[in-house]
Each structure stands twice: as C-alpha cells, then as structure tokens.
Amino acid sequence: MTLWMLVLPLLGAAAAAFAPGRLAVVGAVASAVATFATSAFLAGSGALSVAWLPALGIDVTLDPFGVRSVLVTTAALTMVPVVLTAARRPVDERRRYLTALLLMHTTLNGVFLATDLVLMYVFWEATLLPSLFLLGTFGGRGRRGAVTKYLVYAITGSFLMLASILAIVPLSGAASYAFADLLPAARALDPVVQTWLFAGFAAAFAVKLPLFPLHAWLIDFHRENPASGVADVAGTLYKVGGFGFFAWAIPLLPDGAAAFQPILLPLAAATALWGGLAATRQEDLKSMLAYMSLSHMGVVALGVFSLTPLGGSGAMFLLAAQMLSTGALFLIAGMLHERTGGFDFARYGGLAKGAPALAAVTLFALFAAIGVPGLSNFPGEFLALAGGFAASPWLGGVAALGSVVAAGVYGVNTYQRLYQGPPGERRADLRASEVLVVAPLIAGILWLGLAPAPQLERIDASAQIATTAAVDPTAVPPHAADAAEGPERSPASTALAAKGGER
Amino acid sequence: MIVPPDGLVLGGIAPALTLLVAAATALILGTVRADARQGGAVALLGLAAAAVFAVRNLVDPGAHGATFGVQWVVDGASAGLAVAILVGTFLAVLLSWDAPVARVGDRPEFHPLLLLAATGGVAMVHAGDFVVLLLGLEILSLSVYALSAWRTGVREGEEAGMKYFLLGAFASAILIYGVALTYGATGAFDFASIGAALAAGAPGPLALLGGAFVLVGLGFKVSFAPFHQWAPDVYTGAPTPVTAFMSVVVKVAAFGALLRVASEAWPATVPSLDLMLAILVALTLVVGNLGALLQSGAKRMLGYSAVAHAGYLGLAVLAAGQGLASPTTVVWYLLAYTFMNLGAFAVTHLVMHDDPQGDRIEAWQGLGARKPGLAIAMTLFLFSLAGFPPLAGFFGKALAVRAAFDAGWSSLAVLALLAAVVAVVYYTRFVFAMWFARAPRAIEVAPSDAARWAVGLAAAGTVAMGLFPDVWYALVEGAGAALALVP
Asked: A167 to chain B: which residues are within 8 Å by CB?
C-alpha cells in the first residue's frame, strides 16, 4: 500500500506525458483519484525497506506511521481538484501541467513517507524541480526573477541541511540513516554538536516553512504563478518545513531544538502577526492569500517550536487543514480570474448578486481559513496556539493577534470587496465543472472540522515521539525539559474534546 | 601459446595492450585508406575488447595483485577507473563519429591518438610506481596536446594546443623534479617503498618538497586551482568532441594517479602533505565555482565547472588518502562524472556546430520547445552536475562530502556544499535559457545519429547511477577497493 503512494502518481505522470490525446487526461485524473482512494487505507499499512546504498547506510524506507499518513491523505485529496483544474487548460499546456503536477505529487508523497534521512532529502530536492518548472514555464512577467529567488532560497537552505544530514551519521556513529537508528544515536550527541546540526536543518525547513524573515520568495512565488491557481496549490502542499521540524529535526536533536527555541518561537509569532497584518493591507486577492498562508505557517511554526505534544499535533493538523482551505481559495481565485481577468480588488464588487453559489463557496472557504469552529483549520489552530501559550504566553498572544484577530479583518474584508457592494458587471455563477473542483475540498474541510479526533490520534502518536524529550524528563538533560515545560500535558485529542465540551 | 615469464601476469595489462594493438591497427589501416569511419570502427572494437578485460580485472579477485615487480597494480580502484576511461573514450568516439569527417577525414591519426591517450590513462591508474605513472602521463598528455590543436587554421584551436602544451610540459617537468627529490629522500620509485620510508621517520625537507612538487604536477592535470587557468581556454579552443574526451579521461587518469600517490606514497604520518592538498581543494572549490558563475558560454562554463568538480573529487581523494574513507568514493564519482560531463559536452557539440564564436548562452534559448529530447538530456546532465537528486551527480557530491565528514574535514565539507549553491545558479541559467526563453532563430542541430547515441547512453548512465548507486559501488567495493599494493 505504501509503495503505491509513489507508483500511482508516477504512472499518472507517465500517462500525462506519453499517452495520446484525451487518454493523457483520463490517465492523470484516474491516477489522482486512485492515489486518494488508496491513501484512505494507508493508516494501517506497513513499512517498506529496500537497501539502496548499504555501504553508507542509505536505504529506501517508507513508513506511513502517524502524521505521515494524515498529510499524505490530505495532500492526495487536494490533488484531485488540482488535477481536474489543470485538465481544463488549453491542449498545448495541459500535458506539461499534468506531468509536472503528478511528478510533484510523487515526490511530495516521498517527502512525507520517507523514514530514511537521505531518502527524505532526495524527495525534498526532487519536489523543487516540478514546482520551478510550473512557475518558470507558465508564470507571469516577473517569473524569471521569482524562479531565481525561489531557487536560491531553497537551494541554500537545502544544501546546508545536506551538510547536517551527511554529518549526522559520522558524528553520532549511527548504524544507518534510518530514523530508528538515528534516534538514539543523535540524541546522545553533545548539545553543542546538536545545535550546529539543528542549524543546518533549520536553514532548509525555515525557508520552506517559510519563517519570517525568510519568506520573501513565497510572496513572489504566488504573485508570479499562473492565474489558474494550480501551481499555487501545489506550492501550498510543498510548504513542508513544519513537517520537517516536527518529524526530523526536533525528535533527532532535542537539545539543538531547545537551544534554538528562544530564536525560533519569536520568529514564529512574528510570522503569524506579520502575515496577518500584511494580509489586511493587500490590494489584490492573490497577494492577500499569500500573506494569509504565511500567517497560517506562523501558527504552524509556533505549535512546532512550542516543543509540546499539544502544539506539535495542532501544528501538523493545521498543516493538513490549510492544504484544503488555502487550496480551495487559490482555486476559487483562479475561477474569479477567469471571469474578470485580474486579481486586484478594484475589479470586483457586488459579485454575490450574479454568482450566489460562488459567493457561498468562497465564504465557506474563507471561514475555514480564518479558523471558524467546525471547519478544518480550527482544531489545528486552537491546539497550536494552546501549545504556543504553554511555551510562552506573550508570544502565544502575539501570534493569536495575527492569526485570529487580523484573520477576522482580512477574511471579512475580502468577502466584502469581492462580493458585496454595488453590483458591477454580471459574472457567471459556479459551473458544473467547477462544482466538481470545489466539492472534494468542501467535503474535506467538513471532514477535518467535524471529526478531527481520528486524525489527531494518529498525529499524536508521532507527537509523542517528537517530544518524548519534553514528556520524559529522565530521558534527556534537564534544560531541554525546562524549555518545553507547560501546564497542558494531556494528549491533544483529549484537550480538544474538553474544549468542545466547554463550548 | 605465449607463456609470460615468471612474475608477469598478462591479464592485468590486457586492457592497455588491447588499446595499443587497436591504436596500431587503426594507424596502419589509415595509411592504406584514409577514412575516419574505419578508424572509428577499429577504435570502438578495441575499446569494447579492452573493456571486457577491464571488467574481468574488476570482478575476478584472482586477477588482483601487483605484477611486473610492483609497477602495475590491479585492484578494485584501478580496474574501476580503467572502466571509466574506456567508457569515456567509447562515448567520445561515438560523438566524433560524424563530426571529424569534414576536417579530419583526410587525417587518419585522430582515432589512434584517442586510443593512445586512453592507453596512457589506463597505465596511470594502474601505476604502482612513479616510472609507470610518468610513462602513462606522457603518453596521455602528448596525444591530448595534438588532439586539442586539431583545428588548424583556427586561432583559438592553435592557441589552445600551444597553451596546453607549454603549460603541460612545465607541469610535467615539475612532477619529474618532485619524483627525483622523492627518490633522493627515500631511494625508491615505487609508492609502497616510498610510503614505508616516509613512515619510518620524520620526513626531511627534501621529501616534503618532493611531495609538494608531485602534488603541483598532478594538480595541474586534475586542474586544481591555482593551476587551472589552462582548462577553460583549452576546453573552449579544442574541438568539442576532443574537449568532451579530455574533460573526462584526463581527469579520471590524473585523479587515479593522485589517489594512488596520496594513499600509498604519503602515509598518514606526514600531515603536511594532506594539509597542502586540503588548501588546494578549498581554493579549487571557491575559484572553480565563482569562475563558472562569470562565464557566458557553455564550453567555458563547463571548463570552470570541471575545475569545481576537481574540488569535490579532491575532497574524496583527501579523505581516502588518509585511509579514513573508502577509495570507492573517488572511483564512483569519476564514472558518474564521465557520464554527465561527457553528456553535457555532447549536447553542446550538437547545438554549437563547433563554431568557436558560437559559445554563447543565446545559442541555448528555446531549445526546450524546438528539440525537447536534447533539451531534456542536457537538463539531466546539468542538474546532475549541480547535484540534484536522484541523478548520478547527487551521490557523487554526497559521497565526497560524506567522506570529508568521515575524515574530520568538516569545514571543508560545509564549504563544498556552500560552493555547490553557486554551482546551482550557473547550471540552471542554461536550463532556464533552454526552457523559459523563446528561440531567437531556428535551431539547427548537427545531424549525427552516432552523437545522439552518445547523448542517450550518457543520459542513461547518469540516471541509472543515480537510481541504482549500489550497483557500481558494490562492484568496486566488492573488488577490494582497499588498495592492494604489495611492497
């Protein structure tokens, strides 16, 4: 089952690239749907391990344990409407779009599933190429600059991470690059060495998160990406820096994480605040969405760097949830662009009269994105902020200001400027093909929002590993435990249930 | 049946002998009928036969050991490097299959010279003492001097040949002087005895000076900075198939020799030589990568990129020379480098028509739309050279950097990866030109099916080594890459 997560999208990519005529589209869509359907059964399936370069301890190991399966399933669900949207592109573009998207899906699944550190790096790097290709081929006028900026940021980060990856085995004496082998060996490393290694990982993950002030590439990336929103959603799926911290850097190097927490936690809060505030000031829809997404990532980072199981679980849940809500909004933005030919708010206003269904869907996705309870982002955001408060009440407050208060402002403002006011030119309402695109995302948003417990339980299993250092003070030096000290220690799902009861 | 005298094992030198026979055959046939195809066919046959012997040397442990005294060593490293040289020469012959006909058809020396150069290279990687090393080096160098000046009447070509010859002769002289000083200090030519003599007591200034001169002489051939200036000029001036050939074969041979010298003749008790090598490596990484950033043409860029890759290879040699990492790393990297670098030059050859003035980035604009097959191949080669996974170049760089960490050269390893960030920028500039820019004019590609085969084989090698790195690694490592020198 696990291997199919790589094989199915790869087959789809091959079909999209080589199959004749309509068969290419059929193959691509079928592979996206099949990948999602298969991913639903991923949770219980076993790990896979094949020797790759055994002399150096590098293997192909894939394991859908815990948070990994949740992210794979949500990403696969998001991929279905993305592929459907790309399939509607003009014939000459369609093939390249679909091939790049499905290749990206393949490697992205690899990032989530790989439990060998070198293999994770291989997928991590390989995911970059299709997203560069999409931006460079179909992007706007400033795409060359955006591509170069994106590339330099990403490569600088990931080569520094590669240094840490390659060094971690010789330094720790671990038997291989497999997570299970690294975990005890790396944790036993001297705190100073851990800090240096963590710095290498942090360089890559903070860029990809992205964390303020390394976020400049993100805004250009979204601004220059093609209007349909397809590449934006793919880029949203690829914001896996938080996952990298949570699944690799923090569990392997708890002392390094503790040493960096005083730097990273304020940066996370700043990201959440800056993203939220900047989103309220944007004059076009896509920039607004870019900053909104940045704000979400700040909350993800806050939860992860709180070094509590609670915050970590919330952050990973939010990471999965924002794939759906932000993804829906970028695709809706593409639909609006199709109708008006631009993204600046000045073109819009009063659309609700002529396109009530589109307005309703937009409002729904916006509500999900700003964290309205009952929809996908709320459980994650709540838990991540709760973790942040536990680690530092001040910084938690700052982040909440950005992600909750500012979110209310930009969410309502955006809806108002798009759909309310004096009706302008009449625009078409949601078409049948577009309903097909948004339906899976709406279903997903409701699914995560109304029944978060099963997913949170799976994430919690990973969170316990990620933060054993915080839970079990005997296992680690005392300062690491201090850093993660917090009043809230119960598993995340229980905490959320309690909160639900209060409401 | 010919029975060799006692102590001589012909199997070990079979690859070199086969090449020599093929070179002689091509030369003699060339006097009867001047036909480049005929020379090429003989060369391909000879290379294939030599490859059979080289692979046998690699997989059959019975063939391992030293023969001719200790002057000719067969082990995993030397047999593996010989395979890399033969693969590189084979692809270069394919690449020049149609190309030299116009200018070269009436000169049948082309293929014999290629084969002789390969013979010299094979001798260098099998060398167990400085005499064989020097013999191999001179056979290789003299052939390549002539080849690099092949375009008579073209100013850049003659300049390239002259520059390479003068600087190369100078470097050879320094190397010979170094060998003489080493002999004076240790009384031996063979690496094992030199190593034993140096390890016995604190080496005097004579031995250190000798070692330094040897390092400089070989450093010129592998294009370590600051002895690298010839590389971009010669790469640009020589005909592209020759550039493709020398960029890989000379590098494999010279690194093979350096690996052997560093690990056998310079024992770990002489850290100053390692330190010198480390300084050269650091300089090479910086100069090569920054230099490549400033180039506007593909051949010059690849010339500096060859310098940069010498830095990564030097890192692996440094670690292997100290005995703290497996020499297999060097052997693995060099075969990967053979595929990707030769492939990149092969596509350059097809796109540029060997026009000395045509070496500009504009020549690549829009290739993705006009010739997607070639553009995909070139993208693979450039991404591989840049170190993107899962291509061969990624494991090359990863192995080299890992070796540096294993040997404790952590700061050099980090420097190597930071320099690699610069490398990504200059390689991807050509990728962007191919895919994201519109073609200013129609692109005409040289019509050569053989050259296309060379591109295809190199691309297959680049991808396969990245996806299945262990095949080649296990083959070399399994052959006992721990150098099998018997004093």
From this structure: 405, 410, 413
